[in-house]
Amino acid sequence: MGKISAKTGNEAMAEAMRQINPDVVAAYPITPATEIVQIFAGFKSDGLVDTEFIATESEHSALSACIGSAASGARTMTATASQGLVLMQEMLYIASGLRLPIVIAEVNRALSSPINIHCDHSDTMGARDSGWIQIYSENAQEAYDNLIQAVRIAESALLPVMVTIDGFIISHGMERIEIIPDEEVKGFIGEYRPRYTLLDEERSITMGAIDFTDYFFEHKRQQIEAMKEAKEKIIEVSKEFNSRFKRDYGLFECYRLEDARYALVVLGSTGGTVKVVVDELREDGVKAGLLKVRVFRPFPWQEIKDTLAYIPFIAVMDRSDGLSSLGGPVFQEIRSALYDIDSRPKVINYIYGLGGRDTKLHHIKQVFQDLQGIDRTGRIDGLINYLGVRE
Amino acid sequence: MKELVEIRWHGRGGQGAKTAALLFADAALGEGKYVQAFPEYGPERMGAPVQSFNRLSDRPITLHCGVEEPSVVVVLDETLLEIVDVVRGLVEDGILLVNTSEIPQAIRRKVRLEGRKVFTVDASTISRETIGQDIPNTPMLGALIKVTGFINLERMLDDTRRRLEKKFKSKPELIDGNINAIKRAYQEVKGE
User: Fold this and answer.
1) Which residues of A touch B34 (CB under 8 A)?
2) ipTM rounded to 2 decimals
3) Second label for B140, Cα 20 to 30 Å away, from A12, A64, A308, A372?
4) Is this model's pTM higher than 0.90 or not?
5) Do A220 and A191 share a domain, yes or no?
6) Sheet-wide strand order for A161-166
7) Are B94 and B5 spatial neighbours (Cβ–Cβ below 8 Å)?
8) A173/B38 touch (CB, cutoff 8 Å), yes or no
9) Same-domain pairing of A92 and A34
10) How many folded domains does chain B comprise?
11) Which positions in chain A touch B63 (Cβ < 8 Å)?
12) How many distinct structural domains can be found in chain A?
């Protein structure tokens, strides 16, 4: 059993970074992720970490520095949010294309414009096709556990990983969490032995070379395969984490889903609120359940399909809208995953919580009531719905 | 204690509503409780009305929405009573605790509250006399644990000392002042 303490999500992420003790952290501050780097810089100045800490002049530079560092074989991390992740966008693709196991602690925040500092998932959903593994956390404990696992996942999959928490709700909310002893974290992540580095003179390699019509496609094909294979690696790392620290993580969490007739699919902190509603509905005899997606990239579509196949009424909750006119990204992918099932479930979409709009218990109850309505009438009135908005 | 206790703190930017919620959560954690402490982030300015929140339970808390129906409301600044509906959503058997030199009955009339329980303590005066400035958040913690009984006084004092030692490394005199403020408010809080 580790030490029980009260920490905010940002404090929990910074604490994990202290224990990971990366070789290099290059970062630029942005609300609501600023504290992660601020606290970590404190660890550095207090001599608690050996990290080379680089304060850069922008997020683009921060990730560029991370790429150089990771390419030279250093265990490398950074933290960012929102516009910061967007400014990193160009370098996100380069990091993943070079197969560099960088880890980002990411705090979900809405994107401008209009300007807003509060939580939604637009920032990381905008990076969903950038070749980064994405792991979403419900609370401070999961953020801490996921960040520690991310180091192992990145280094075994040779892919970069972003671990996310909901801005303010989790990043600035203090909760009870269990901190693993330093030595045990060290033992779990192990010493980093990069397979390829620019500084390995015995085995010289080229990174970032030009790659035209002759081999570009083959290299992308390998990257696609690496993302597919990452799924098993995430499962392996989660299993080992559970065997050591007794906290069980999978690709997604099923909550009272076995015999459910109505299911919600959600990512992040709202998952916890949905659990409370599911418990209340179960007491009233309503067969409600929750599937909380932890790993969104790679998207575990076969496992989700097998799990949701027998649940006739499903609402997918998206904390971002792709502005495609077909709802949010989670909805589109879940619905696509279920297409080949003969008795396809009814799947509807709720866009919720944009710009930090509070998602209350009665909002979640409304979603379940809507699913029950579809069950009664056989009719879907709204395929894509907006929860808690004035219109 | 009820299955889930929710507390709403009202203050003005700079009075320490957020810190009070964090200190309270930390002390409750020491009692083996599951806790949450979170502020409401708006346009933060010195002096503007702000809120922060606590949740306490003997079981894990998974709720991540705002607090709508608090069991306890703590008001750090009595001038807020005229501009903020501080008793909004306060549950039937809830508690209102206000930093004021007035008696509870006067506050009850001012906020037109029926039922529930009203307590008052002059935390600003206590703060000025113990800490040397008007920072009412720590004395209000003392009054809060007295009227709710959620936390043991000695534990609260230990945890507050530990946290403040980190925060005020360079100003140790503030630590004893804060500890004395909690003790005095614990003794001086008045009910109806």
Assistant:
1) 176
2) 0.92
3) A12
4) yes
5) yes
6) A52-55, A24-27, A76-81, A103-108, A161-166, A133-136, A295-297
7) no
8) yes
9) yes
10) 1
11) 272-273, 276, 361
12) 2
